[in-house]
Amino acid sequence: MLAGCLLGGILGRAQQAVVSDASSERPPVSWVQAAAQNETAIVQQARTSLRYRVRKIDARGDTTRETIESKQGGVARLIERDGRPITAQEDAAERVRLQAALASPEEFLRHHKHDNESRQYTLELVQLMPSAMIYSYAPGQPQPSGTQSRQIVLDFHSDPHFHPPTMIADLLTGISGRLWIDASSQRLTRAEAHIVRPVNFGWGVVGRIFPGGTLEFEQADAGGGRWVYSHLSENLTVRELMVKTVPVHTEMSSSEFQLLPSLISYQDAIRILLAEKIPLR
For 86, which DSSP code? Predict the structure, then answer.
């Protein structure tokens, strides 16, 4: 949860630090303001469901899931493990799990309450960015692969005068990094963040992210003006609830994006996933 909120809040508006760029007289803040507005619209105004595949590699293993973003939250079906098709037994277990979700809407909604909370945290951080960060141009930087138009590259760091009004806003006080913003669409295409000082939650009782960690993510146009995260890499050292300190190493990539005609219910998303025939081993 902590890392996800941090990623969601990296972009946003910033103080008016006017630094000229060889190719633009716009203040750097104006690019970030536009990107922040677009990001907020993505979170708040999804009008169609999106289908895609997600491969995730972390301490639990290497899994690939077919995913559909529904009206009530994301629904996923396991289709590969360690880069290979799942077994018939694993597929049967997935079918039982998804059928149970169909039969218990209350349980599904309870499980996805965390998704809604993360979305609200993201919006809060975006709204706080005007007073949280200072931006400057970083000319001459490499452009992300596959981009079709010029990318505006900006460096950012925390404003030392920023006083977080909420616990979650503490995420914004210990990071610095770099953003790539597409000049044509004014969408964020890539972000890199570094934890430069300890980030505490509830004076360190709720949690702490230690310095030296890194976060990277990229976005891609899934079609119809819908931009989504296509890659995520996080390497952090985290302690939650004063229990123990653990390393967090996660790699996620999304592909095969498909916009559905409308915003569908989670029940319809499950039925679509269950109807799909997948290879088994």
Answer: P
Domain that holds residue 197: 2-275
Kindly provide the b/e burial profile for residues 130-154, where b requires at least 16 CB atoms within 10 angstroms of the residue's own CB: bbbbbbbbbeeeeebeeeeeebbbb
- Domain presence at residue 280: no
Number of domains, the chain:
1
Distance CA 63, CA 81 (A): 5
In a domain, 124, yes or no: yes
Q: How many CA atoms lie within 13 A of 180 on its CB side?
A: 19
Q: What are phi and psi of 90, to 5 degrees?
A: -65, -40
Q: Average pLDDT for consecutive 10-residue bins of the chain (281 residues)?
A: 50 36 69 82 70 95 96 93 97 96 87 71 74 88 75 92 84 89 89 88 69 90 82 88 79 94 94 96 90
pTM over 0.85: no
Longest Cα separation, the chain? 60
Q: How far is Cα 12 from Cα 203, in angstroms, rounded to an integer?
A: 25
**E strand intervals along 35-96:** 50-58, 61-69, 74-81, 84-85
What secondary structure, in 3-state letters, does 190-225 show?
Answer: EEEEEECCCEEECCCCCEEECCCCEEEEEEEECCCC
